[in-house]
Write a structure and sequence with these properties.
By secondary structure, the protein is of the alpha/beta class. Helices cover 40% and strands 17% of the residues. It has helices at 3-21, 40-48, 59-68, 87-93, 103-112, 142-150, 170-185, 202-207, 217-220, 229-232; strands spanning 30-34, 53-56, 75-78, 96-100, 120-126, 155-162, 193-195, 212-215. Strands 7-6-5-4-3-2-1-8 form an eight-stranded parallel β-sheet. The chain starts with a helix and ends with a helix. It binds pyridoxal-5'-phosphate (PLP). The site of pyridoxal-5'-phosphate (PLP) has 13 residues, from β8 and α9.
Length: 234
Amino acid sequence: MSMIRDTLAKVRQRIRDAAQSAGRHADSVGLLAVSKTKPAEQLREAFASGQRDFGENYLQEALGKQVALADLPLVWHFIGPIQSNKTRALAEHFDWVHSVDRLKIAERLSAQRPSHLPPLNICLQVNISEEPSKSGCLPEEVPALAAAMAALPHLRLRGLMAIPAPSTDPTTQRAAFARLRQLQAQLPLPLDTLSMGMSEDLEAAIAEGATWVRVGSALFGARTAPATAADTAP
Ligand SMILES: *Cc1c(COP(=O)(O)O)cnc(C)c1O
């Protein structure tokens, strides 16, 4: 009963349709399968249907899946909040980190990236809707933070990431994504990545230039399982 093959086909079709409406090539939009709380076997099934890039939010849970799936050539993306005592494992075990929002975290990731690995791809996460107590730097902090992060030797700043305040109104959705695109366009840096759009709003994100859409529930179904204890410990 391979549901994932079917949901992957549906999401890929949504991406193709949205790209076409926006006059973009479908292959300019990457699909990041957000597999938090889902067991390794479901990622293996997605791999069998052609999925390579997986996004995880909880470090211990992700490391366990990396061990279980070590026989597969997967690309691992971290997209969750980052505590500074987790940076070494992130630097050692991931290909991308989308959720970097402080210079101290970026400095630690750069210092801890093993020299035998290529530079770690990072995105600067922006609190684009300026919601109190949400992850992400403020929009006005982006130019200075991006410049400082781009200068770190073992990182490659690829672009900006955001999780806008949820909205079911396509116009509101697009306005937030457009703001992120415009912020990025103003930076004097060679950036190629806009990580924005999830199950409910990927069409609006693609219309505004998303290069990674991060899709969880539309692929794997609703999430019910809690994170592992090690990930929720303070
Ligand atoms: C969980 C999560 C997603 C996926 O959300 P869905 O609505 O399930 O598609 C995307 N990005 C981040 C940062 C997440 O934490």
